[in-house]
């Protein structure tokens, strides 16, 4: 191989590896009012055809209180509802900010205000 061709090929390979490592996890964030009147329920959906592992949900209320919840795995197109029941009785207040990260992705989805 010619040196110039090799350098260009290496740049393309490294560039594609870096872009693959910085993709946000394929998770959409939705919300709804709790049916029992206990704050907001966050709906997380894996929008891909792949399993997403170690999904970390960080929630910060308007007054600065923070909670974290980890979902071990979201199957392809699986949805998960997160509310006061799964957060040990902590109702998610309106105006909270949510950020979602996952293993294998260096960027997060959000923060999004609920």
Explain what you see:
This protein has one helix and seven strands; from the N terminus they run H-E-E-E-E-E-E-E. The chain is an alpha+beta fold. It has a single domain (24-113), classed as Immunoglobulins (Immunoglobulin-like, Sandwich). It has a four-stranded antiparallel sheet, with no helix packed on it. A three-stranded antiparallel sheet has the order 1-2-5, with no helix packed on it. A hairpin with a 6-residue loop joins strand 1 and strand 2 (40-46). The radius of gyration is 18 Å and the shape is globular.
In short:
This protein has 114 residues and is α+β, with helices and mostly antiparallel strands. Helix content is 17%, strand content 40%. It has one helix at 3-21, and strands spanning 27-33, 40-46, 52-60, 66-74, 79-82, 97-101, 109-113.
């Amino acid at each position: 191989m010619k040196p110039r061709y090799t350098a260009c090929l290496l740049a393309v390979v490294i560039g594609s590896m870096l872009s693959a490592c910085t993709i946000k996890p394929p998770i959409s964030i939705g919300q709804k009012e709790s049916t029992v009147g206990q704050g907001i329920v966050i709906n997380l959906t894996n929008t891909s055809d792949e399993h997403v592992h170690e999904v970390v949900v960080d929630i910060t209320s308007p007054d600065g209180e923070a909670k974290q919840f980890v979902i071990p795995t979201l199957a392809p197109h699986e949805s998960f509802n997160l509310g006061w029941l799964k957060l040990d009785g902590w109702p998610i207040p309106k105006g909270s900010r949510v950020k979602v990260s996952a293993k294998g992705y260096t960027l997060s989805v959000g923060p999004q205000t609920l």
